[in-house]
Specification:
alpha+beta; Nuclear Transport Factor 2, Chain: A; 5-stranded mixed β-sheet; two-stranded antiparallel ribbon; 5 helices; NTF2-like_dom_sf; Ester cyclase; Cyclase_SnoaL-like
Length: 171
């Protein structure tokens, strides 16, 4: 691996790691001012913008739902300006996980279960000027939902979801 490829790999790995505990300054050092996150479509409106601030908003959204949040990188591949990471995301569901519609209105809310999860993901990063300018991912959302007890939902959990959604829409 060349020094350029190694640097790109390190930027991609670090950009994933800061999601768990990085500061706004960390995000500014890793994400290009024009960076876009293709995965933000169901996230709060602040996450759908461009640049480090939008990525930091995504981190805050995830941190609000999951304690002990982290990623373990299993493999990394670098090809030109593209870095692909195969990773395992883990955490514990301690806060409501809310998804949003295209207008930024709460669409679904999953109340905290206290359960832990660990799921595989593949993250794709495109770099420009030594920073992340684009991100997208393939995630095991079904596996995560099963581990957290979201599916199959019990009648009690469905009621808790409705109450959580009502509360999220009031916020």
């Amino acid at each position: 691996m060349t020094s350029t490829e190694l640097a790109a790999k390190e930027v991609a790995i670090e950009s994933l790691m800061v999601m768990a505990s990085g500061s706004p300054a960390d995000f500014r050092s890793l994400f290009h001012p024009d960076a876009t996150n293709r995965m933000a479509v169901d996230e709060p409106l602040a996450c759908r913008g461009r640049g480090p601030e939008a990525y930091y908003a995504t981190a805050e959204w995830l941190r609000g739902a999951y304690a002990d949040l982290g990623w373990t990188v299993e493999d990394a591949v670098v090809e030109g300006d593209l870095v692909v990471l195969h990773a395992t995301m883990s955490g514990r569901h301690t806060g409501p996980f809310v998804t949003y519609d295209e207008n930024g209105r709460a669409a679904q809310a999953f109340p905290p279960t206290g359960k832990s999860f660990a799921v595989t993901q593949t993250h794709w990063f495109r770099l420009a000027d030594g920073k992340v300018i684009e991100h997208w991912a393939n995630r095991d959302d079904l596996g995560q939902a099963m581990q957290l007890g979201w599916i199959p939902p019990t009648p009690v959990f469905l009621i808790r979801m409705l109450l959580a959604l009502r509360k999220a829409r009031r916020s």
